[in-house]
# Entry
Amino acid sequence: MLLRVERMRIILMGMGVVGQAFLELLELEKADLYRKYGLHPVVVAASDSNSMVYNPRGLDVQRLLNHKRSEGTLHGFPDEVQGMDLVREVEAEVVIDVTPSNFRTGEPGISHLRAALQTGKHVITANKGPLALEMPALVEMFQHKGLRLLFSGTVGGGTPFLRFVGKCLSGEKIVSIRGVINGTTNYILNRMEDGISFREALREAQEKGYAEADPSNDVDGWDSAAKLVILSNWAMDLGVTLKDVSVRGIRDVEITEDMLSRGKTVRLIATADESGLRVQPEEIDRRDPLVVPGALNAVSFIAEISGRHTLIGKGAGGRETAAALMRDLVELKMYLGGVEPCS
Ligand SMILES: NC(=O)c1ccc[n+]([C@@H]2O[C@H](COP(=O)([O-])OP(=O)(O)OC[C@H]3O[C@@H](n4cnc5c(N)ncnc54)[C@H](OP(=O)(O)O)[C@@H]3O)[C@@H](O)[C@H]2O)c1
# Structure
């Protein structure tokens, strides 16, 4: 095999848990990426919420990470720039968006995606907001421009739910999807089975870092709904957005002794089937494959011919999500012509 090695210039928007884990992984895997795939990624620009850095020859990734970790900001880094619109103005092949998911406005991710589209850049994203609100239009616009929009990290962190259904079940018609796709609520419901209240379980989830200070996107079902939109558009080509999902969270759930003694429990189930899309707490048999412990996720894809396929894995985590971004980066390299046959 002959590898065509070219610089893949990256603009990284977001330097939080996932952004930092991605840079760490990039440093760690540098030699392998080059050797196996002819991939030579160069981070030319990066941004957090209030500062940005840019160097057309490539930023020193380790120094950048050290600076962000010690100072909590990119402000003061030697390559700091001001007043630039990085996605629009910087020359690069790909924008990686790991800014916060906003399910009301989609910002700042939607602006990053539109700017990438207008300036001919591919996008890899873990940000669910833009896709939850505008996935059908965004996918069409990227296709129309011959650009790739890759989003493995948006559902399941490092567990390849999207890739599984897209690649392993390709050629099959997916007739429905049922899944537990929010680790925080799954953790809370598991602890409620142990007899503690919703409030106590939520506090515990926050102490363990599963739930955010404002847990409403998780416990009210919006994070699951966003992922359901992405999954069902991808696997079933439904052309839906968040407004098409009926959403109910777990704040009023009770798990009773009687329920448990009947071999039942409650899980927050996201479903896409012939009656539409919904996220709601459902009573479910405790032996069902979707009843998974802790903060795990599980998704069942029901294929018309081959039936039910269930994939279980960790649904989040900085390193795991960074691994999904890396898979997308390798896929992009392949798409751009990474491996050529021996002559
Ligand atoms: N964490 C996970 O396990 C996980 C799993 C799957 C998907 N995701 C998704 O991945 C994304 C990132 O998650 P995370 O856990 O890394 O979040 P995070 O720790 O809150 O990091 C978000 C980063 O975005 C920066 N940011 C905010 N507004 C920005 C703007 N306008 N321009 C540029 N940067 C901006 C923040 O800046 P400051 O550093 O200045 O605050 C921060 O560096 C989210 O959309 C999340 O839903 C996360």
